[in-house]
Amino acid sequence: MDVALWYVWPLLLCSPCLLIQIPDELMEPPVITEQSPRRVVVFPTDDISLKCEARGKPEVQFRWTKDGIHFKPKEEVGVTVHESPHSGSFTITGNNSFAQRFQGIYRCFASNKLGTAISHEIQLMAEGAPKWPKETVKPVEVEEGESVVLPCNPPPSAEPLRIYWMNSKILHIKQDERVTMGQNGNLYFANVLTSDNHSDYICNAHFLGTRTIIQKEPIDLRVKATNSMIDRKPRLLFPTNSSSNPVALQGQSLVLECIAEGFPTPTIKWLRPGGPMPADRAIYQNHNKTLHLLNVGEEDDSSEYQCLAENSLGTAQHVYHINVEASPYWLHMPQNHLYGPGETARLDCQVQGRPQPEVTWKINGIPVEELPKDQKYRIHQGTLTLSNLQPSDTMVTQCEARNQHGLLLANAYIHVVQLPARILTGDNQTYMAVEGSIAYLLCKAFGAPVPSVQWLDEGGTTVLQDERFFPYANGTLGIRDLQANDTGRYFCQAANDQNNVTIVANLQVKEATHITQGPRNATEKKGSRVTFTCQASFDPSLQPRLAWRRDGRDLQELGDSDKYFIDDGRLVIHNLEYKDQGNYSCVASTELDEVESRAQLLVVGSPGPVPLLELSDHHLLKQSQVHLSWSPAEDHNAPIEKYDIEFEDKERAPEKWYSLGKVPGNQTSATLKLSPYVHYTFRVTAINKYGPGEPSPASETVVTPEAAPEKNPVDVKGEGNETNNMVITWKPLRWMDWNAPQVQYRVQWRPQGTRGTWQERTVSDPLLVVSNTSTFVPYEIKVQAVNSQGKGPEPQVIIGYSGEDYPQVSPEIEVIEALNSSTVLVKWWPVDLAQVKGHLRGYNVTYWWTGSQRKHSKRHVHKGHVVVPANTTRAILSGLRPYSSYHLEVQAFNGRGLGPAKELTFITPEGVPGHPESLHLECQSDTSLLLHWQPPLSHNGVLTGYVLSYHPLDVGGKEQLSFDLPDPELRTHNLTNLSPSLRYRFQLQATTSQGPGEAIVREGGTMALSGSPDFGNISAMAGENYSIISWVPREGQCNFQFHIRFKPPAEAKGSAYLQSQSVSYNQSSYTQKDLQPDTEYEIHLIKESKILHQMAVKTNGTGRVRITHPTGFGFTTEGWFIGFVSATILLLLILLILCFIKRSKGGKYSVKDKEDTQVDSEARPMKDETFGEYRSLESDNEEKAFGSSQPSLNGDIKPLGSDDSLADYGGSVDVQFNEDGSFIGQYSGKKEKEAAGGNDSSGATSPINPAAALE
């Protein structure tokens, strides 16, 4: 039979006595199998049963001794002997008189002819019914406040008692630190009170063995009341002396007790002067009066335990010096052995105990001292040695160890036998193991004398020549570091002086399992997933298995859970949590071996919550400080970088947390500087590189005392919103800076430069209006926080101003300089600041086109605006029309609005013209083109002619041909000598005295088109006696001549072609007259006898038919469609004419009149916030807008599309900026979309009426 050796090999290495079974035909010395306990206590009516059972061959005989004297149970009255094999037990029927007579120490002897075994000593104790001795209990009289002890003194018993103190109503006497019961059963009063005055203190003793409770006579405790109880220091009632030396048995429990009296009632505490109290073994009971030490050990020997009773008047103490002793216990117990003749037996009996036990030997139950002297045995230091054994030396030995705490007994037989060698292991067994491991081949031999065992290979040579082979005492052969060539047959031979026997063991060595790719350590973030991979190689003849473990336990997929996915050597763990981290291992195994590869998974993430906060040093709250400490948070495998300390005021800002600061991650406490009168509740959040964790639970709430304000408001301003007032504003204090339940503000002001008395008011809101002031007068302003505890620090003086008025001065123009034909530079002198009546915010430049030098326009045009800061006295106006007249206005403005305007007119110089409006190419022949064009819409001066340039495309080295056309009225030009095989690029520019302008470009040529000429969208319509053919000539198609012929139907008389005229391709239509009504004609377009196109048409007397295809008719030839299209075109022309007339008169827009009135800056007050965004909306043709919206003044200023900016002037604006830094005085007008749409109304888009620009 095949055996997987590695499952069973540990059994083979045990002691030979456990592996060798005695054959059935052999005899066996007696062996005690069951016996009564060492101490037997019996009570009345209990049966007495003493057990003694043993096995042996031949059958065992039993005898007993009592107190060392032979005892015959069968001859005793009332004793019944158990008549059963292997038993010498007997029973004494329960009777009180019998029980007393049979008390004593018993021992059982079990014998056969091979020897005698004995039991341990059995002490039999008989206990009668418990009775309290007769006694006279006298009343106990004591004065109030004194101590007293009520004795119990229960009857003695072999079994532990339970004592209860109760009254006559069977209610337990209440025990506490003052009243307590000792281990001896007495009731101790540390001091008595009048409430203790009772006549029925009864001690009850519960005997568990007899299941009986008996009562002592009631004790009458009489307490004399007193008016003055005398205090006294503690005194010990138990134990009464200062020290004692109790003995404790090793491995058992020790009870120490201290009961004290005194007034006030003392308290008890326990100390261990030599070291700390063993917390895991110390139990305090009975209101700390009893110390229960569990499992006393050698370390408790010679140690001291001190009980200390103390009250306000003093202390009393008792010192326990512990002595630890032990009953005997085995170090080495003698064992049963089989021996062959001539061998030596050695029986070890090694014991320990405190005090050291006395060891004695018996042979067959007889002390060796009483046996005849024999040279065969020798006793030395507890070891019995017998030499040269013979079969007659078979015996049972007894080793007995004894001290005052107990007794140990061991029976061990020496069985001398003579047997032939036998191999108990089966023959021809097969063992399998893997390369590199250890194989164990079994050969369990038996015989007397003990046979020698050797292993041979197939050649009969001993295998021990190879150091990898090693034998065991029990016959097993071990082979380490197995190799494939170790496979084969091995022979085990066992021999003694009687015979020798041999068996065969077959060994098969398989390939070892290897993990070729194991999982790797991984660090992943919480919530992500991780994948471990594993690959292994196996012996092909074995069944492979690949499994995963976590921390040594098999890991399985969790049913419906998506947590784990295991497949084909992969382990995927989804949705990682911190509890998933650990050691994951891949286990590759067969029935013979198992290999494992481990990887560690660390799950990282933000820290866990800080578990515990603690506030201390509350006395520092008076200085607005507190000490906060906390337990470190779980770092989740990423070091904590810092802790964020936050607080909440549940009274003023519930559920809103504010940061108090951050501390380093290695710090777990901080002394916090607090603000007065804040209800602080703290929390702490740990932060690592993955972010903040969850906040800690909130701490307890502490309140700091009130105090005067420590801060004053900031951002104090004084500005008027009317000409005769000043509005003082400030940023109010945060509630956490109030330092009290409420806060107010003391506002003081006086004119700047005066030393007069401060005017003041105390307000709650962050605003105060000072009325009846002069216009734009500076004031000194102070704002101070005040509360119920006092004032804040002395505030800083701020300069504010009363309300502004409109400026009363206009800038003087210094110069207007033309930079180019579309850009001018305007300069002016700075205004007198005294006349501004406020803070000068800047200058507003308004300009508009009034006409060109060629013609003047009466229509209203859009105005352009440029706003510059106060420290700038120049502006660049760009995007102007060349050769035009402009009107200019410059105004200063302040926070109130615009001042009077300085007006001026200027003219822009002549510029280059725009591009020609159109350019068409008309092919005249294969070598000539006719060019048609329209002049530019924007002349920008006086046209002097045109410049025409052209050059062929895709031909290198060809120079561009260019020539002037000096006639400005010219509209066409014919080019000849062109190549019919090339395409050309044509460029046409109009010119003024300033040079050529923008070019219009077209590409084309005279090259012949491949295939038939293209008659685009050709159609025919017919009347009653005529037909019209129309087509759309193709751009770039050369003109040519062809004929159009109408042919009547074949059945008509004289069905020949009607005579046709020569038709030009560019004329785009032809009319054929003199047709017959209600007749269908075929139409052919012919050139040089080649039909270019053909179609059909039918005449009638009333309607028209449009033919769009040679094979059918379309709706575009229908009369109704032609009429509809004509009517639509006529209606559109009428609408365009009406629009042009309306626009020329300017009556379409209602805002013209508004503009003229809104130019006056006095008409409406202008606030800082009313400045809109100015745009220049002019264009050369008066339908198109030019320029773009102006940016904010703190950015680049590009008025009317100019590249000029405030940076060019080196100035900046110091007032009226928005929070984002942009200038408040931006201007806004119509959107460019509206300007481009041709709406030419010119509402007054001034800073004082920005809304007009949106009308």
TrEMBL record:
Pfam families for this protein: Bravo_FIGEY, fn3, I-set, Ig_3
Record's compositionally biased regions (Basic and acidic residues): 708-720, 1174-1185
Record's keyword terms, sorted: Cell adhesion, Cell membrane, Cell projection, Developmental protein, Differentiation, Disulfide bond, Glycoprotein, Immunoglobulin domain, Membrane, Neurogenesis, Phosphoprotein, Repeat, Signal, Transmembrane, Transmembrane helix
Signal sequence residues: 1-19
Residue span(s) of domain Ig-like: 30-119, 133-220, 234-323, 328-415, 420-508, 513-596
Membrane topology classification: Single-pass type I membrane protein
Keyword Metal-binding: no
Compositional bias ranges of the Polar residues kind: 1239-1248
Domain Fibronectin type-III: start-end pairs: 608-707, 712-805, 810-911, 915-1010
Subcellular location: Cell membrane; Cell projection, Growth cone
Subunit structure: Interacts with SHTN1; the interaction occurs in axonal growth cones. Interacts with isoform 2 of BSG.
Descriptive protein name: Neural cell adhesion molecule L1
Organism per entry: Dipodomys ordii (Ord's kangaroo rat)
